Amino acid sequence: MADGGALTGKVAVVTGSNSGIGLGVARELAKRGASVALNSFTDNAEDHDLAKEIADETGAKVVYIQADMSKPDECRALVTKAVEQLGSCDILVNNAGIQFVAGIDEFPTEKWDAIIAINLSSAFHTTAAALPVMREKGWGRVVNIASAHGLTASPFKSAYVAAKHGVVGLSKVTALETAQEPITCNAICPGYVLTPLVEAQIPDTMAKYDMDRETVIKEVMLERQPSKEFATVEQLGGTVAFLCSDDAAQITGTTISVDGGWTAL
C-alpha cells in the first residue's frame, strides 16, 4: 500500500520512466499515494507490465503512456493523455535524457539536435502543456532532473552540458512565472547515480583499466564525486517527493544537488 499517502489524490507524470532515475522517482511517488503516468518512447508489453507491477506493489493507479520526447507534439500529448486517463497533471517530472560524447568539432549535428530536443526542449513542451492544468487545479509541482553538468562542465559533452544548463535556466523562468501561485518549479542536479545502465558499464571499465570493482568505481567512475559513492535512484525519488510536499511550498526556482559534493569543488 502507499507509504503514508502524503500525495494521495495527486497525479504525477514522469518522462523517461521505464528505467533508471525516472523509474525510481515514479515508484517513490506511487508509494506516497500519487497516481503515476510512466513514459518512454517504446510501447512494449513490458512497459505496460511495469505499470501494473508498480500499481500492485503500491496500491496506486499507474499507467504507461508512450511518447517520443524528441517530438514536440508528442511531449504535449503526453500531458493531455495523462489528464484523460488519470484526471489531472499535478506533478510533472521532466527526466527523459540521452547522452553522446565527442569533441565539439567532431560532434555529429544529428546528435546535438537529438540531445537538445530530448534533454531540454521536451521539458519546455511538457511544462507548457501542464501549467494550465495546474493553474486550473490551484496546485502544481514541476521538478526537472538536470545534472551536476547543469552547474559545471566536462569536456566532450557539449550538447549534454548545454542542455542541462538550459534545464536549470528553464526551471528558474518557470518558477518566476508561477511565483505568486501555489505552483513551484525546481531542478535536481544529480552526480553519478547507480542505475542499471551504469551498473552494466562497471565490468567493461574494470577490464579496460585492469582494476577491481571498488577501485574502478572510486578512482575512475567517481573521480569527480568527493563522497566516492553513487547516489541511488531511491534517494532521487525521495528528493522529488520532498519537493512535492507542503514543506517545500516556498522552495522554487532553485537547484538541489545530489552529487556527493561534486559541485562543492
Number of strands: 7
Q: What does the main sheet amount to? A: 7 strands, parallel
Are there runs of 5+ residues with pLDDT below 50, and where? none
The CATH homologous superfamily of the largest domain is termed NAD(P)-binding Rossmann-like Domain
Strand order of the largest sheet: 3-2-1-4-5-6-7
Radius of gyration: 18 Å
CATH architecture of the largest domain: 3-Layer(aba) Sandwich
Assembly level: single chain
Q: Per CATH, what is the topology of the largest domain?
A: Rossmann fold
Number of DSSP helices? Answer: 8
- The CATH class of the largest domain turns out to be Alpha Beta
Order of helices and strands: EHEHEHEHEHEHHHE
Helix content: 40-55%
Q: For the residues shown, what is the average pLDDT?
A: 97
- What overall form do the CA principal axes indicate? globular
Head-to-tail CA distance between termini: 41 Å
In terms of DSSP E residues, the strand content is 5-15%
Number of domains: 2
What would you call the structural class?
alpha/beta
Keywords:
265 residues, alpha/beta, Rossmann fold, 2 domains, seven-stranded parallel beta sheet, 8 helices, 14% strand, globular
Task: Give an overview in words.
This protein is an alpha/beta fold and 265 residues long. The protein folds into two domains: 11-192 and 231-264, Rossmann fold (3-Layer(aba) Sandwich), CATH 3.40.50.720; 194-229. The chain has eight helices and seven strands, in the order βαβαβαβαβαβαααβ. The chain has helices spanning 20-31, 45-58, 72-86, 109-137, 158-177, 196-209, 213-221, 233-243, and strands at residues 11-14, 35-40, 62-66, 91-94, 140-145, 183-190, 255-258. Strands 3-2-1-4-5-6-7 form a seven-stranded parallel β-sheet, sandwiched between helices. Helix 4 runs parallel beside helix 5 (158-177) and helix 6 crosses helix 7 (213-221).
